[in-house]
Automatic annotation (TrEMBL):
It comes from the Bacteria. InterPro entries: Dimeric_a/b-barrel, DUF1330. Pfam families: DUF1330. It comes from Jiangella alkaliphila. Residues 2-95 form the DUF1330 domain. This is Uncharacterized conserved protein, DUF1330 family.
């Protein structure tokens, strides 16, 4: 099942460390099957507020995403970003092939009826 690393990063002043981080990051996730899905693109807020930017990296699975995050290669460059950009970063499983959201809706409906 695919997995994703999603970062909601606040805007930051340009800094050479950030440029170096961006130059080096792709090389850290390629051995784990990772690739950018969203990076340095504009977003359109439809509800709420979402200052800053979004980065999304796809991996074959959560194990590969975790291995990338914990790898010495990524941990070496992570401070280049974290010293200059605040944000929130999550890892999340994708849905399996053939996922049907109506089964989730049925579970919610059953739980709501049981709570009545």
């Amino acid at each position: 099942m695919p997995a994703y690393v999603i970062a909601h990063l606040q805007d930051a002043a340009p800094h050479p460390d950030i440029a170096e981080y961006i130059e080096r990051i792709s090389g850290t996730f390629e051995p784990y099957g990772g690739r950018f899905l969203v990076h340095a693109t504009r977003h359109e807020v439809k509800e709420g507020s979402w200052p800053g930017g979004v980065v999304m990296i796809g991996f074959p699975g959560l194990a590969e995403a975790r291995s990338w995050w914990d790898s010495p290669e990524y941990q070496e460059i992570a401070p280049l970003r974290s010293r200059h950009i605040d944000g929130d970063i999550i890892m999340i499983d994708g849905v399996p092939e053939g996922y049907d959201p109506t089964t989730t809706a049925a579970s919610i409906r059953a739980a709501a009826l049981a709570a009545e």
